[in-house]
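Exercise 7b. Backbone tokens:
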């Protein structure tokens, strides 16, 4: 699995702001959007382009345009929804495939409760978005599902990843790319990332 941890000062700064438990729900959402834009910028680096002829004020010229089937972005409900605006800011024509999954509080096993995917996944770049990669169970199950439906080129965008979750995900899905703003210290006994962000879904939706 190819792992990219963003080292840009804006990413480090905004992630630091996000870790503060005293920020408002509105501020938390805004920072998640800004970080998602930067993750998308990195993750979309390898989209293919082709040359096209256009007319300009000074005559005809060749420009580069992104080509191929439109990418699909896959927010993992709920918390992944918080990253969607950021991704669509840079890739506004992306198709949206939704997977709903929550983690059982005792076993940490993922439970799938919604699935609506776009067609022709095998021809698209697939961007999976979820702020937290903790035990890795949710993303392993999400990618299992996407591959069963034909997805081949998969990149995962997370804000914070645990070393334990990364190792597990890499074992199950060595062929994917992963982009993260931070690889944190460890998981605690409740399956939370330390220092992490706390419960990202609750902080985004204001349900804590
Ligand atoms: O790597 P894992 O151990 O599987 O944990 C990570 C998952 O847990 C959180 O979702 P949660 O279950 O809290 O659902 P929510 O998004 O509805 O809050 C988070 O958004 C991930 O989807
Ligand atoms: O630290 C964690 C782990 C799982 N889900 C979260 O929202 N935060
Ligand atoms: Mg949650």
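Sequence design result:
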């Amino acid at each position: 699995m190819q792992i990219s941890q963003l080292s840009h000062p804006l990413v480090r700064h905004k992630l630091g702001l996000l870790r503060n438990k005293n920020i408002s729900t509105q501020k938390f959402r805004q920072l998640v959007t800004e970080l998602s834009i930067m993750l998308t910028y990195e993750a979309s680096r390898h989209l293919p382009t082709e040359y096209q002829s256009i007319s300009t004020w000074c005559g005809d010229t060749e420009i580069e345009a992104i080509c191929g089937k439109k990418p699909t972005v896959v927010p993992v409900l709920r918390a992944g929804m918080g990253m969607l605006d950021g991704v669509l800011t840079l890739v506004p024509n992306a198709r949206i495939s939704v997977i709903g999954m929550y983690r059982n509080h005792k076993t940490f096993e993922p439970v799938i409760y919604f699935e609506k995917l776009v067609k022709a996944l095998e021809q698209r770049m697939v961007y999976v978005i979820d702020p937290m990669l903790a035990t890795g169970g949710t993303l392993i199950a999400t990618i299992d599902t996407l591959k069963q439906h034909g997805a081949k080129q998969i990149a995962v965008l997370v804000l914070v990843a645990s070393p334990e979750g990364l190792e597990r995900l890499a074992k199950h899905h060595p062929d994917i790319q992963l982009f993260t703003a931070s690889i944190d210290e460890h998981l605690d006994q409740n399956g939370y990332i330390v220092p992490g962000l706390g419960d990202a879904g609750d902080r985004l939706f204001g349900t804590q």
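Instructor comment: The chain has one domain: 2-205. The radius of gyration is 18 Å.
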